Amino acid sequence: MKIDPIHQFNIEPLFTLGHIGNHTIAFTNSSLYMLVAVAIISILMLASGTQLVPGRLQSVAEISYEFVASTIRSTAGSEGMKFFPLIFSLFMFICVSNLVGIIPYTFTISSHLIVTAALALLVFFTVLIYGVAKNGLKFFSIFVPHGVPGYILPLVMFIEILSFFLRPVSHSVRLFANMLAGHIALKVFAGFVAMLGFSLGALGWIGGVLPLALTVALYALEILVAFLQAYVFAILTCIYLNDAIHPGH
Amino acid sequence: MAESHGGAKSPAAGAHTEAEGGHGGGFPPFESSTYASQLVWLAIFFVALYVIVSKLALPKVGGAIEARQNKIEGDLTEAQTLRDQSDAALKAYEGELASARSRAQAIGNESRDKANAQADAERKTLEEQLAAKLAGAEKTIAATRATAMSNVRGIAADAAGQIVQQLTGVVPDAGSVNAAVDASLKG
């Protein structure tokens, strides 16, 4: 029996809609899980009541709200609340799709670099456009750190500029690689249980307890990673936006 | 994460789905033919999510949180007001009580003084009345005694006349009897 840990990342068209140029536009399993994530967030945020004493669903909605709001306030200040809808959408979209993707037999949207890259570039261009629109050329003072001696300033500026333009790369690859690696590891260990059982019989099934235990432990870790990567993506977005809002710092 | 062929299925079924759902040997995240679809749908769903979040979800949840905050603040303010009111009422009550107490004391003192004065006056008039009565009574007693004494002389004179008559059989002279009685009364 062959276990293919990559198969879970396949994009399978459910129905084809048309073509743009020579690209096929299809509603795929990825699109379906994007729809699922949007639907879950909408239900969570809209179907929960607005009671004075919140119920369970309303508590979750309000905790999400307060969590994202306090993250923005602590990293980008109260001016960062302009971007509350954007950061909230990013955080909830990534968090919910990661958590849905961890359920066996589902698809994880953020295990595709093109998706995380698109989100990271959205953040990158938001920062760049808002920063220039708000501060003009002063925005580029983020490349000139204070208190650096003149003779190494060109080098420091070069590094700063390079790191600024590499932000979307690290921003997107971090999320993508975490989700991809976690899911592959889970699949490999889970597949190992079946492989042992089918190749060694009863002894193999008994020996499979070990990789099974590891799978359970990894699963718990992956739930943490699913949330944590969404949080990291959101907090990095806040930090980048902080540059656009307060370029002097 | 785990697909239909990845679980504890029979080897034949596993091989079947493997052949069917193969991905052409490529690495799915780097298959550029899927990019356009993913980007288009990501744009559609993310924009939809952004609109839902910014227009509906956040105002609603934020409003609920704010309403609760306002309610709590309002309740606290109201509680503070009520507390201030009750403090003021307690202070007013204590002031009222103190003034009432001092007033009661003043009234008590006043009425006691008045009663004392009245009692003194009454006693004085009573004493005067009693003294007058006593004087009158003494006068009456003296008059009565004088009358009685004069009566006694008459009775004594009569009795002496009778006694003399009985003893001697001669009616004595009234003048001599009277003189004899007077002499004996003086004696």
Automatic annotation (TrEMBL), chain A:
Pfam families membership: ATP-synt_A
Keyword entries, A-Z: ATP synthesis, Cell inner membrane, Cell membrane, CF(0), Hydrogen ion transport, Ion transport, Membrane, Transmembrane, Transmembrane helix, Transport
Positions of transmembrane segments: 32-53, 83-106, 113-133, 148-167, 188-210, 216-241
UniProt subcellular location: Cell membrane; Membrane
A GO CC term attached to the entry: plasma membrane
A GO term, aspect molecular function: proton-transporting ATP synthase activity, rotational mechanism
PROSITE patterns per record: ATPASE_A (PS00449)
Topological category with respect to the lipid bilayer: Multi-pass membrane protein
Gene3D superfamilies: ATP synthase, F0 complex, subunit A
Function: Key component of the proton channel; it plays a direct role in the translocation of protons across the membrane.
Listed PANTHER family: ATP SYNTHASE SUBUNIT A
Family under the similarity heading: Belongs to the ATPase A chain family.
Protein name, UniProt field: ATP synthase subunit a
Organism: Bradyrhizobium betae
UniProtKB/TrEMBL annotation, chain B:
Pfam families referenced in this protein's UniProt entry, alphabetically: ATP-synt_B
Keyword S-adenosyl-L-methionine on entry: no
Keywords (A to Z) from UniProt: ATP synthesis, Cell inner membrane, Cell membrane, CF(0), Coiled coil, Hydrogen ion transport, Ion transport, Membrane, Transmembrane, Transmembrane helix, Transport
A Gene Ontology molecular function term of the record: proton-transporting ATPase activity, rotational mechanism
Coiled coil: 90-132
Transmembrane helix as UniProt keyword: yes
Ranges that cross the membrane: 39-58
InterPro entries: ATP_synth_b/b'su_bac/chlpt, ATP_synthase_B_chain
Annotated region described as Disordered, given as residue ranges: 1-25
Quaternary context: F-type ATPases have 2 components, F(1) - the catalytic core - and F(0) - the membrane proton channel. F(1) has five subunits: alpha(3), beta(3), gamma(1), delta(1), epsilon(1). F(0) has three main subunits: a(1), b(2) and c(10-14). The alpha and beta chains form an alternating ring which encloses part of the gamma chain. F(1) is attached to F(0) by a central stalk formed by the gamma and epsilon chains, while a peripheral stalk is formed by the delta and b chains.
Job of this protein: F(1)F(0) ATP synthase produces ATP from ADP in the presence of a proton or sodium gradient. F-type ATPases consist of two structural domains, F(1) containing the extramembraneous catalytic core and F(0) containing the membrane proton channel, linked together by a central stalk and a peripheral stalk. During catalysis, ATP synthesis in the catalytic domain of F(1) is coupled via a rotary mechanism of the central stalk subunits to proton translocation.
Family that this chain belongs to: Belongs to the ATPase B chain family.
The protein's name: ATP synthase subunit b
Provenance organism: Bradyrhizobium betae
Lineage, opening ranks: Bacteria, Pseudomonadati, Pseudomonadota, Alphaproteobacteria, Hyphomicrobiales
